[in-house]
Specification:
alpha+beta; Glutaredoxin; 2 domains; Thioredoxin-like_sf
């Protein structure tokens, strides 16, 4: 569970260290701005930047019922973050599975990605796409 938060915690700690250094150098405004930048990065790298994750089995049942895609992701993945923000509000239409939180999700990704945990991986109607085109996924979410 802590692994999901490692990068976010690291960013927050680095920001605090930089801010303290700037404060001791007599530059409190610079330190405050840098702290805010690091905290923003921590938020982006945290699981909070993504819609609520569900277990792989739950996502598969829901996807079979509503036809919406399943997006397998992990915190700290820059490609997952790019995909998430390129989707905007449409991201809430997909079923998101954090592979670091759900071993069954990680196994599902390894099954379609030659044994690797390559994310983001999208499964739609039984077809898996590793590192999907963002425009394609947006179109799938709009039509679902």
């Amino acid at each position: 569970m802590l692994r999901r938060w490692t990068l976010a915690i690291l960013m927050a700690v680095c920001g605090a260290l930089v801010a303290v250094t700037q404060l001791t150098d007599g530059l409190p405004v610079v330190g405050g701005v840098e702290l805010l930048i690091f905290l923003a990065l921590a938020l982006l790298l945290s699981p909070w930047a993504f819609p609520r994750s569900v277990e792989a089995a739950e996502a598969q049942r829901a996807s079979a019922a509503d036809g919406r895609p399943i997006v397998y992701w992990r915190p700290g993945c820059r490609y997952c973050l790019q995909l998430r923000f390129s989707l905007g509000r449409l991201a809430r239409r997909a079923h998101w599975v954090d592979i670091w939180l759900d071993p069954a999700g990680a196994a599902a990704v390894r099954a379609v990605a030659s044994g690797n945990e390559t994310v983001p991986t999208v499964v739609l109607a039984g077809q898996a796409v590793v590192n999907p085109d963002r425009a394609w996924l947006r179109e799938q979410l709009r039509s679902s």
